[in-house]
Amino acid sequence: MPILNRFNHFLLLNSCLCTFAIVLLFSCSTSKTVVGDLSNVEEWKQLYNGKNLYGWDIKFSGEILNANYKNTFIPMDSFIRVQYNEYTSFDNKFAHMYYFEPYSHYKLKFDYRFFGEQTPGGASWNVRNSGIMFHSQSASSNDFDQHFPVSIELQLLGGLSDGKERQTGNMCSPGTNIVINGKLDETHCIRSSSKTYDGDDWVSAELIVMGSDQVYHIIEGDTVLSYTDPQLDDHFVNQTKDDWSDFGVYTNKWKSQNGVLLESGYIALQAESHPIDFKGLRLLNLKGCMDKNAKNYKSYFIEEDNSTCIYK
Predict the structure, then answer these.
(1) CA separation for the pair 259, 145 (Å, rounded)
(2) What percent of the chain has pLDDT over 70?
(3) Is the Cα dihedral 210, 206, 143, 150 positive or negative?
(4) Distance from the first to the final alpha carbon of the chain
(5) By the 8 A CB rule, do 194 and 154 touch?
(6) Do 71 and 32 have their domain in common?
(7) pLDDT category, 232, cuts 50, 70, 90?
(8) CA–CA distance, 251 with 141 (Å, rounded to integer)
(9) Is the pTM of this model over 0.85?
(10) Rounded CA gap, 76 and 213, in Å?
(11) Rounded Cα distance, 74 and 277, in Å
(12) Closest residue by Cα to residue 190 from 173, 208, 176, 204
């Protein structure tokens, strides 16, 4: 190669190398900026893997732990289905499917839809009625014949297409109470301010839980109910009599804990005689590392758990 051409080739090669170095330096700088911004990026956890019921425990009244009685809970491509195709009668087979990990401070988002007809033998109040339990006892701690876990319920109701109001996003309280508008309210179910949703369309819901401090129920983007101080009660449902055994609960430990605040617990999908689908189940944990020097610090955390901090 002639000397002049070699020199030009050398200049061109060095120019390319310099350009590459500048691009690499800019990329690294940009990458560091992006990493710094990750503290603001919300890390939502998908609770359903879209394939099977891995990570969930099932408990039916009158059945052993993780017996999926008559294939009631069915994994679908993008949602979980609660169905009663193999039933001839509901026979009080109340059931709940619990996510394996407890939480205290979080946002939970999902969509739901009712469909089909209620299973024969279900109570009239259970038509288009289901829910999601939270701050719940674990599946394994349920008594064998227990109908509902000791928990707070985000109750889901579908309209009956009869022209009457039927709110969804209500609160029900098996073995528990809440404080609303600054006063202890021992009413078992408290209505929200939501619209009525007739038909089989998907309805979006969100639950915001801040330990025992504050709870919000949100339907289609509207906050329809809020309350504080979820706590244990010495009655299961009815304040006028000792009714725990009426719902298959024979463990006396709950009565002695009257007034104890519920700081955390499990999340469970309910099955109580009407078919329903749940999709898009996702959770944003609001409790975690709040040390800004840690790699897993998140600016949106509201409750500290620095035992989870990662520094390397």
Answers:
(1) 25
(2) 88
(3) positive
(4) 52
(5) no
(6) no
(7) very high
(8) 10
(9) yes
(10) 36
(11) 9
(12) 173
Question: With left for phi above 0 and alpha for psi between -120 and 50, is residue 13 left, alpha or beta?
Answer: alpha
Query: How far apart, in whole angstroms, are the C-alpha atoms of residue 36 and residue 39?
Result: 7
Q: Which of 131-145, 187-201, 228-242 shows the lowest per-residue confidence on average (mean pLDDT)?
A: 228-242
| Mean pLDDT score, 92-101 | 98
Looking at the domain assignment, is residue 309 inside a domain?
Answer: no
Average pLDDT over all residues of the chain: 90
Nearest CA among 156, 126, 129 for reference residue 224: 156
Beta carbons within 10 angstroms of residue 247's beta carbon: 18
How is residue 143 written in tokens?
A: 């008594």
3-state secondary structure of 32: helix
Residue 294 lies in a domain: no
Residues in the chain: 312
C-alpha–C-alpha distance, residues 271 and 248, integer Å: 16
For residues 75 and 52, the answer to whether their CB atoms sit within 8 Å is yes
Domain coverage including residue 27: 1-41
**Domain presence at residue 304:** no
| Rounded Cα–Cα distance for residues 234 and 226 (Å) | 23
Provide the number of structural domains found in the chain. 2
Decide if 255 contacts 16 (C-beta within 8 A): no
